[in-house]
Known about the structure:
The mean pLDDT is about 95. α6 (about 155-165) links the parallel β6 and β7. The longest helix has 24 residues, at about 190-210. By secondary structure, the chain is of the alpha/beta class. The strands form two sheets. Strands 1, 10, 11, 12, 13, 14, 15, 16 and 17 form a nine-stranded mixed β-sheet that branches. It has an eight-stranded parallel β-barrel with strand order 2-3-4-5-6-7-8-9, surrounded by five helices. It is built from nine helices and 17 strands. α4 (about 100-105) packs across α5. It folds into two domains: about 15-20 and about 265-365, D-serine dehydratase-like domain (Lyase, Ornithine Decarboxylase, Chain A, domain 1, Beta Barrel), CATH 2.40.37; about 25-255, Alpha-Beta Barrel (TIM Barrel), CATH 3.20.20.10. It has helices at about 25-40, 55-65, 75-85, 100-105, 120-135, 155-165, 190-210, 230, 345, and strands spanning about 20-25, 45-50, 70, 90-95, 110-115, 135-140, 170-175, 220, 240, 270-280, 285, 300-305, 310-315, 320-325, 335-340, 350-355, 360-365.
Amino acid sequence: MLQTPPAIPGMKQDEIDTPALVIDLDAFEYNLDTMAKLLAPTGVKLRAHAKTHKSPIIARLQMARGAVGNCVQKVAEAEVLAWGGIPDILVSNEVVGAAKLARLCALARIAKVAVCADDAQQVSAIEAAAADAGIRMTVLVEIDVGAGRCGVQPGPDAVALARRIAGSRHLIFGGLQAYHGSAQHKRTPGERQTLIGGAVDASRRTVEQLRQQGLDCPIVGGAGTGTFEIEAKSGVYTEMQAGSYVFMDADYARNLDEAGAPVSTFRHALFVLSTVMSASQPGIAVLDAGHKAVAVDSGMPTVWQRPDISYVSASDEHGKLTVGSETAAPKLGEKMLLVPGHCDPTVDKFDWYVGVRNGRVECLWPVAARGGFS
């Protein structure tokens, strides 16, 4: 059952029902434009990650600014984007299971679709699904560039898997998936540079060994909001897969620049609007946004432009605030904006974005690909 839309266009921001997922449209558009401007001189393409926003509307806005397509993590996300008119989609993940692969191959009739593999058994399964559908599926080899999660080892192992793909009548070797997820959240530039330097070296070595085997590597994809500028300047990576930059979150705001200040490339554009539902205890206020409204896996949300107030704990339907001794406690019914610690799983809790500009609701967009389905 869809959630009831919490707003209608034209109403004031303070009239939005809560909890609600709110986009500051000015900050959001600034982020889209900034990424396009930063990548334009490098010649590297943006394949923005839709697991963050789960929205064909936002995907189209990214492509209007030069993105070549979008990444997703699940077949269901690929379906929603393809049905929404996105023409070029990479499942930047392994897909296992005949039913899921059949669905993915079906999408190849309405969009350009690719998927990743890190094992010969996966390749055989993709090959069988593609043969059954009467298509050729593009497959990228995922290499482990230091994250220690998915991926075959760079070098000879990756080359052998690429040769297996390239030798199939039903598959096309599309390149390398070389994403280092944990590097995105290392706080200092030196830490990020060291980890991505290793990823670049592993990718470069693998590309050269592929070339020696007569295999072109059209795509070397990876990077995220925390490190994309390093990969874009590497001369190895061809596609950036940043996602969170469209919204930013409290965790990315903890990354530091060379001067030791928070990185300020992008602006906070995503908020959970919440209402004070109880103020009965001194120095404490309780919001109507708990675990079911905001993700806390990357830390608690922050209260927007209120450093004197801390969101200290969450339960299912409640978020507990503590207030500094010199600060007046929020009043019952007062509405507050929260910056999520992690934007992706926060978005997944809502059916609607409420786009706000100059204090008024401008649009409602469905979070079309949300949910735990795959």
